[in-house]
Specification:
9 strands; N-(1-d-carboxylethyl)-l-norvaline Dehydrogenase, domain 2; 2 domains; alpha/beta; 52% helix; 14% strand; Rossmann fold; 3-stranded mixed sheet; 6-stranded parallel sheet
Length: 291
Amino acid sequence: MNIAFVGLGTMGAPMAMSLLRAGYRLTVHNRTRDREEPLAAAGAARAASPAEAAQGAEVIITCVSDTPDVREVVLGERGVIHGARRGAVVVDMSTISPAATRAMAERLAKREVGLVDAPVSGGSEGAERGTLAIMAGGSEAEVETVRPVLLAMGSTVTHVGPVGAGQVTKAINQTIIAGVYQSVAEGVALGLGAGLNLERVLQAIAGGAAASWVLDNRARFMIDNSYPLGFRLRLHKKDLDIALAEAAELGVSMPVAEMVSRVEEELIATGHGEKDVSALAIAVRRAAGMD
């Protein structure tokens, strides 16, 4: 199978590498062209534009930062839509607006090109290991067509509904982890303030009801007050705002998500947007007078 992959950032590059390791024929494109070089060295072909990458591909994967970027990559002057053949399936693995996803699906359908929205969870670690959780929206037939490709990058692929449902599911995911990150940061600050041995505290609570991926993988960042990149805080803020916009349209109140979004906005304004989401702990520590 011929696959095109557009967008080779922190998530996209290791995901594309997983496809090469799985034996797929891969053509790659990235706006910053030197990011293509490691993939080319591993056997991928390079394309000068998304449209060129899409030519001859049965599956075209996009993984870029935000809704305007996806629109440009898919529908722009040099976008995928101008190179995709009839019967191809675009798989957007970005995290963007559900409404924008549905609108793009309508445009692609006029060219007899399918769209599956398949955002992911698992961070850069999951992308590196090929263990992402993938939430897919689209027709049953198109999701099943791309399922083997998705399983080369993730450990689970769940068909959650029609086009756009994947993005709504990702919005739910980002809403839930927002509260978890914030509460882990607060718990860590409480333990530090009490002078406890936090390694023992983590050991004590990790096997109980407080267990979570964030507790296992990010609490130590918060203890050390060091936040190496897994998933950028500014991108989580973007995702959370998508969730809040969807909630507002549906009349759903999300006060915890609103509070975390405000905290993230303040952290971005003070220069912490490129740090991992666990940098939410900076605001908690600051409020407690620890820094």
